[in-house]
Write a structure and sequence with these properties.
The complex is a heterodimer. Chain A is an alpha/beta fold. Chain A has 25 helices and 20 strands. The longest helix of chain A has 22 residues. Chain B is built from 15 helices and 11 strands. The chains are: A alpha/beta, B alpha/beta.
Chain lengths: 666, 351
């Protein structure tokens, strides 16, 4: 096969044969946001989030057609660090005998548009490089013996499907504007979309020709607007109004104001005006605030008002829970090195009175069950199917199982650098011991400067041991999570199951985004049942959950046992499995596997599971007036992390974005 | 052992009509976006895909181009060919058959997207790009067996190329792009887990196969298989005429496709179906019309009929319905039928 020599190509693709930007039907908000960035690059780009097949990428990739002097520079997901920030130029270095800089994508992006498709899937490592450069406007390279810097100011455009996970807020904030993209629901418009697409595919050249005029017109409009931009005045009222709006939205930092004013300027310029009017500000706010808006801080909703009468002060469980989190985090921290410093509380101090309190609680529960036998029984007889309640974004639970072998070094939560040859190559390093995964490109770069002084052995390139570099790879390691869900009669009361289902679906969605595999076990009546064996299909798990009836007694121990069996079976197939068991229950139980007290049995079972090295999480569903704290007690016995159901929710910022990505209305 | 390389003839596959139809439609019209075949083990999934090789038409390509560019299609040329095209240089044209290119689940990223040519670098001290599977796949069928087991980062790459028809490489010191337009064909066993929705959506159509239930057909399946294993050549010879027939039909349909038109009411159906079923985005509408047009061409018609729309909907929609449990692989297309009938009859009144 003929091999091709490498070329550096300015344009990613010949735009002459691409779908015309102006021929994209609808998506006015998206188009507007993109145009504004062409008029005023200070806006800082746009993030387009939305369902698949809505012309997101088509619009961005063809933005170059209407840009007077900018092009779209593509950053593919599998880009390696050397190509992103730039690195040694091998050919020049060899021929000149001294290190020469070979520019990367960021150099190419300077003064242009940097486009990242599926930006939410980008390697954390590359994200960090981009963030740094985006913040300073300068790409500073210190690597492979090269010290170099060049300006790198670009319009950052990302597209993503929120189903696949979200961006962290720091990265999110880098995008000036945000648009939630949705398909059109208008039949006439939809028909036109299909027609145009087919026309483009069948008669590419003539289709493009019909839109040339419009393209040219839009291009001129942008040129005009750019000329206008300098003349647009920003009055005191505009400053004031902007500040007020941003204040109202509880945005962090000052970027929102700046971006909003720049956007309003561009809007005015595009309209040929020299003053910014109220509508400009309103429109700007719609684009600038969605991903920055937060809910009012110090929302008092968190604490539960009905806890007032409780003997125990409210802080106690709070505090316990925090400490629990610290405890289990510790294992993670040892590896990941994130804020491991703040473990000041001595662990022993809380345990004595804590268990005391729990003991009395257990007594209470026994009493309650003996005193009020009818009430649960009624619900135990009747099966009912509750709807899935409100779902939400799960906060960062750090529920990655810990695998000490692989996770030494700089482990990240979502992605782990792996030793094996699997995973995505992101950067290279000087090998620690023997090399089994040679990074040839990096080795070449390391060897390049010395070629002139090394003895000739007939080859063009002489490589010595000290040049060798190995690949550092990153792999999204999903865990295997088995959900054990209480579906007994008591859960049917007061829409509790709805809440539980909502929380479980939220956890499942979270699991999907983290590439976890899930299994589902429920327990009710006399036994536990495997609803779903380990799978990657969250859809299936969700369906099982939706149809899950509640009713009957509460065989907690049986549920735990079944959950453990599922994990055990899976471990036989895959030894590297990182299993996690999530128990969703209030800890109450009234059906034992064998003779004896059901709760004691559940405790025993929990301890045994913990003894087998399975990481566990207990999600407490208890909402009753009098808290028994059984789930908490179980969590302590299992060494599990403990969360109350309402504690699972992510911070308000992410939540706000999530809501917005669902409904594009502002 | 002499005829070890003789593949099972496509026309010798008993039953599995939907799967066969889906594959043939994709050969007729490579713009349909490929097909994902889901089903239990032993349902002739892989056999059918591999058997395609014998049916694939030959097409014109630029000689020596590693991407097999079409000398008449500048829009999808690699940069070298495009340069020649625009400089009005003449191409040496050769005819080559479309191929089935395998993407093994264990493939590493550098092999998939292409990488730095190590040998060249050491011998010459120059960087050179060594094309990978995505280069081979250009204008061919890219087949991924067990596609649901593919590593996530490979899936991402695949998605990008499948979406844009271009493979962009920015890694290992290499900066390069080349056309990579392929018909993506995947097979999977849903028991082993599902595909990410994003990748799922890239497949133009999805077919769920189940083992034949009809006892007579089951017997035929076994008989054929045994006959094939006993003497591959003799078995293949039995189907020579059928294979040629099918090849001719495909070629004819390919030609006819350019003449197939669709009425506005067909468009109306597609759009209404998509809206009623609440599918994501617009890909379903477009795929439905294109598939219906290809079905019409395969049937020898020049105009899309409501029946074609129904058939197309059944191929194009299963994986696009929102939040549908797909463990059974059986869908209810009553609603689709209703819309088709409603739009169809409304049109009759107008006419």
């Amino acid at each position: 096969m003929n091999k091709k020599t490498l070329k550096h190509i300015g344009h990613q693709d010949k735009p002459a044969y691409r779908f015309p930007f102006v021929a994209v039907m609808g998506q006015e908000m998206v188009k507007k946001a993109l145009l504004l960035n062409l008029v005023n690059p200070l806006i800082g780009g746009v993030l387009l989030a939305g369902e698949k097949g809505t012309a997101k990428s088509t619009l961005v990739r063809n933005l170059g057609q209407i840009a007077p002097d900018m092009e779209v520079v593509d950053l593919p997901l599998n880009a390696t660090e050397d190509r992103v920030i730039g690195s040694i130029d091998i050919e020049k270095t060899i021929s000149q005998g001294k290190r020469a800089f070979g520019s990367g994508i960021l150099k190419k992006a300077h003064g242009n548009i940097l486009y990242i498709d599926e930006v939410n899937l980008l390697s954390e490592h590359i994200v960090n490089s981009i963030l740094e450069v985006a913040a300073s406007g300068v790409n500073h390279i210190e690597r492979e013996g090269i010290s170099f810097e060049h300006p790198a100011r670009f319009v950052l455009i990302g597209t993503m499907n929120p189903e696949e996970g979200f961006l962290r807020s720091q990265f999110l904030d880098r995008f000036g504007l945000y648009v939630a993209v949705e398909g059109s629901k208008n039949p006439v418009e939809r028909k036109e979309i299909v027609k145009r697409r087919l026309a483009f595919e069948h008669h590419t050249a003539s289709f493009i020709k019909t839109w040339e005029g419009d393209t040219e017109m839009l291009k001129n409009q942008i040129k005009e607007a750019r000329k206008n931009l300098g003349a647009v005045k920003i009055s005191e009222t505009v400053f004031k109004l902007t500040a007020d709006i941003v204040n109202e939205a509880y945005c962090a930092g000052n970027r929102a104001e700046l971006v909003m004013i720049e956007t309003a300027r561009a809007l005015a310029a595009l309209a040929g005006r020299q003053n910014i009017n109220i509508d400009d500000i309103k429109e700007a706010a719609q684009l600038v605030l969605p991903h920055r808006k937060r809910e009012k801080p110090n929302d008092p909703q968190e604490s539960q008002p009905d806890d007032q009468n409780d003997e125990e002060p409210e802080e106690q469980p709070e505090e316990n829970q925090e400490e629990d989190q610290n405890d289990s985090d510790k294992e993670d921290e040892a590896d990941s090195g994130e804020d491991s410093a703040d473990q000041t509380e001595p662990e022993a101090s809380e345990s004595p009175d804590d268990t005391d309190a729990d003991d009395t609680d257990v007594d209470d529960s026994d009493k309650e069950e003996s005193e009020l036998p009818q009430q649960p029984e009624l619900s135990e007889i009747l099966d009912q199917i509750d709807a899935i309640g409100r779902t939400f974004m799960i906060k960062n639970l750090n529920i990655k199982a810990v695998d000490r072998k692989k996770r030494k070094g700089e482990g990240k939560r979502l992605k782990t650098k792996t030793d094996t040859k699997k995973g995505q190559y992101i950067k290279s390093a000087i090998p620690r011991n023997t090399i089994n995964d040679l990074a040839f490109d990096a080795t070449l770069r390391a060897a390049a400067p010395y070629q002139r002084v090394r003895e000739d052995n007939g080859l063009a390139l002489i490589i010595k041991t000290e040049d060798l570099r190995e690949k550092l790879r990153e792999k999204r390691t999903g865990s295997t999570i088995v959900f054990v869900v209480d579906a007994s009669g008591s859960m049917g009361a007061k829409k509790r199951m709805e809440t539980v289902k909502g929380a479980a679906v939220s956890l499942l969605t979270d699991a999907y985004q983290k590439r976890d595999r899930v299994g589902l076990v429920s327990f009710r009546k006399k036994d536990a049942e495997v609803l779903l064996n380990i799978t990657r299909s969250v859809d299936m798990a969700e369906k099982c959950l939706r149809d899950l009836p509640t009713g009957g007694k509460t065989p907690l121990a049986a549920g735990l046992q079944k959950g453990y069996e599922v994990i055990k079976n899976e471990q036989r197939k895959n030894q590297d499995l990182l299993p996690i068991l999530v128990l969703v229950s209030d800890g109450r139980t009234n059906a034992a596997l064998r003779e004896g007290d059901p709760f004691t049995e559940a405790l025993e079972m929990g301890k045994r599971i913990a003894g087998e090295g399975v990481q566990t999480i207990v999600v407490d569903t208890e909402v009753d007036f009098i808290k028994l704290g059984l789930a908490k007690k179980l969590a302590v016995a299992m060494g599990a992390r403990y969360y109350r159901i309402e504690d699972l929710e992510a911070d308000v910022l992410a939540e706000a974005v999530r809501d917005l990505s669902k409904e594009s209305s502002f | 052992m002499k005829n070890i390389n003789i593949i099972y003839p496509f026309t010798g596959i008993v039953g599995q009509e939907t799967m066969k139809k889906a594959l043939i439609l994709n050969i007729i019209n490579p713009l349909l976006g490929g097909v994902l075949i889901r089903g239990e083990k032993g349902t002739a999934k892989s056999t059918a895909v591999r058997a395609l090789a014998d049916l694939l038409p030959s097409r014109s390509q630029v000689e020596g181009c590693p991407f097999g560019c079409d000398p008449r299609e500048p829009a999808n040329m690699c940069s070298d060919c495009l340069e020649k095209y625009e400089n009005k240089e003449t191409f040496v044209e050769v005819f080559g058959r479309m191929k089935v290119v395998d993407l093994p689940v264990s493939a590493t990223e550098d092999r998939v997207v292409g990488t730095l040519d190590i040998e060249h670098a050491i011998k010459k001290g120059e960087k050179k790009f060594e094309p990978g599977i995505l280069a081979q796949a250009n204008r061919n069928i890219l087949y991924v067996d067990e596609v649901n087991l593919l590593d996530d980062h490979i899936v991402d790459v695949l998605l990008d190329s499948a979406a844009m028809g271009v493979n962009t490489i920015e890694r290992e010191g290499v900066s390069f792009f080349h056309p990579s337009r392929f018909i993506l064909v995947g097979t999977m066993n849903p028991e082993e887990g599902d595909l990410r929705p994003q990748l799922l959506d890239r497949f133009g159509m999805v077919v769920d196969v189940i083992g034949e239930r009809n006892p007579d057909q089951r017997i035929d399946v076994i008989k054929n298989r045994l006959a094939y294993e006993k003497d591959k050549e003799a078995f293949a010879n039995l189907f020579t005429a059928d294979q040629q027939d099918l090849r001719d039909r495909i070629l004819k349909a390919k030609k006819l496709l350019e003449k197939v038109s669709y009425g506005d009411e067909m468009l109306e159906m597609a759009v209404k179906i998509s809206i009623a079923l609440d599918v994501d985005g617009h890909r379903a509408d477009i795929a439905m019309i294109k598939t219906a047009m290809t079905i019409a061409a395969f049937k020898g018609q020049t105009e899309v009929a409501p029946a074609d729309m129904q058939e197309a909907a059944e191929l194009v929609l299963p994986h696009r319905l929102r939040r549908t449990p797909f463990e059974e692989g059986i869908y209810n297309f009553d609603q689709v039928e209703q819309i088709i009938n409603a739009v169809g009859s409304a049109q009759d009144v107008v006419v």
